[in-house]
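Before a colleague's protein record goes any further, I have to sign it off. Would you go through it and say whether the fold makes sense for this chain? Take the sequence as given and treat only the tokens as open to question. The record follows directly below this note.
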Amino acid sequence: MSKDQKAVINLHENQEANSKIEVIKNLIFGENIQVYNSEFESLKQDIIDKKKILEDLIEEVSSDLKKSIDNVSTDINIRITDLEQSLEGKIEKLETKSVDKALLGKLLIDLGEKVSNK
């Protein structure tokens, strides 16, 4: 065979090989091959059906989880807002108390000066 020539597959030989395989399958399994094929198809369909059911369940759980996460996120945001407002109120009270202490100190100094002047 030269470089320019290519090997050609004889399709007729390939068909003969396939028919020989079929004859061997029939000899080994006989009429039971149809039963086996039917059972395999039944199992295959059962697996496909169960896969679909599982995919639906996964989608449902995913949707429920997303809703739960949204609810928790909303709840956390509300609680954070409440805490911020509570902290702001407490800070205002502390600032008021601090101002009162400074004012009290100044008044005491003024009172001390007035007492020493008399």
Q: What stands out?
A: The chain is about 90% helix and 0% strand. The chain has a mean pLDDT of 83. The helical segments are 11-29, 32-117. The CA atoms of residues 26 and 33 lie 7 Å apart.
